[in-house]
UniProtKB/TrEMBL annotation:
Keywords: Cell inner membrane, Cell membrane, Membrane, Transmembrane, Transmembrane helix. It is a multi-pass membrane protein. It is found in: Cell inner membrane. This is Inner membrane-spanning protein YciB. Belongs to the YciB family. It comes from Varunaivibrio sulfuroxidans. The chain crosses the membrane at residues 18-38, 45-64, 76-95, 116-134, 140-159.
Length: 186
C-alpha cells in the first residue's frame, strides 16, 4: 500500500521539489488508504498509523515550508513501531500478531521471534533515516527511501520466510509449536 505513494513521491521530487512531492505523497496516501477501505471495508493498523503521520508531518512541511518534518516522519513512525513491539514483548502482549490480524498463523515461539526481529528492524530503519536525512542532501534522502529502504524491507521480509515456515501452524487455535520447531529449539 505504501509503494505507490512512495514511487509518486520520488517522481514528483525528481521533476519538481520536496514540497510538491510531499503534497503528491499526501494525496496518494489518502487515495491508497481509501482504496484499501473500499476494497475490504478495513484498513490495517500499521498503514493507517503511517498514513496519519504522513498527513500530519506532510501538512507541517507544507504549512511551514520546512522539509525537516517530512524527513522526520520515517524516524518517528519506525521508532514508534519498534517501541510498541518492544513494550508489547515486555508486557507479554504480542502487538505484531494483533497487527497482522490472522494473515499468518504461528506458534507463540514463532510470534515472539518474529516480533523481536521486526522490532529491531524498525529501530534500524529509524536510526538509518536519522543518519541519512541529517548528513545527506534532500535528493539523496528521497533516493534512499525508494532505492534503499523499500528493497531492504522486501529483503528483510523474505529472510523471515524460513522462520515463518518453521513456526507456522494449521489451526489458529493450536498455539503449540510444531515438531520441527521443537527440534530446532532444542
Amino acid at each position: 500500500m505504501e509503494v505507490g505513494p512512495l514511487a509518486l513521491f520520488f517522481v514528483v521530487n525528481a521533476r519538481a521539489d520536496i514540497f510538491y512531492a510531499t503534497f503528491a505523497f499526501m494525496i496518494a496516501t489518502v487515495a491508497s488508504l481509501g482504496y484499501a477501505y473500499f476494497n475490504g471495508r478495513h484498513i490495517p493498523a500499521m498503514p493507517l498509523i503511517a498514513g496519519a503521520f504522513i498527513l500530519v508531518f506532510g501538512g507541517l512541511t507544507l504549512i511551514l515550508q520546512d522539509d525537516t518534518f517530512i524527513k522526520l516522519k520515517p524516524t518517528i513512525v519506525n521508532a514508534l513501531f519498534a517501541t510498541a513491539l518492544f513494550v508489547g514483548l515486555a508486557l507479554r502482549k504480542n502487538l505484531f500478531k494483533i497487527a497482522l490480524q490472522g494473515a499468518i498463523h504461528l506458534d507463540e515461539g514463532g510470534w515472539r521471534k518474529l516480533t523481536w526481529r521486526w522490532a529491531f528492524f524498525f529501530l534500524f530503519l529509524a536510526l538509518a533515516n536519522e543518519y541519512v536525512w541529517r548528513t545527506q542532501t534532500t535528493n539523496f534522502w528521497v533516493d534512499f527511501k525508494v532505492f534503499g529502504v523499500m528493497p531492504l524491507t522486501v529483503l528483510f521480509s523474505a529472510l523471515q520466510l524460513p522462520l515463518i515456515m518453521r513456526h507456522q501452524i494449521d489451526d489458529p487455535g493450536d498455539a503449540e509449536p510444531s515438531q520441527e520447531a521443537q527440534r530446532n529449539e532444542t
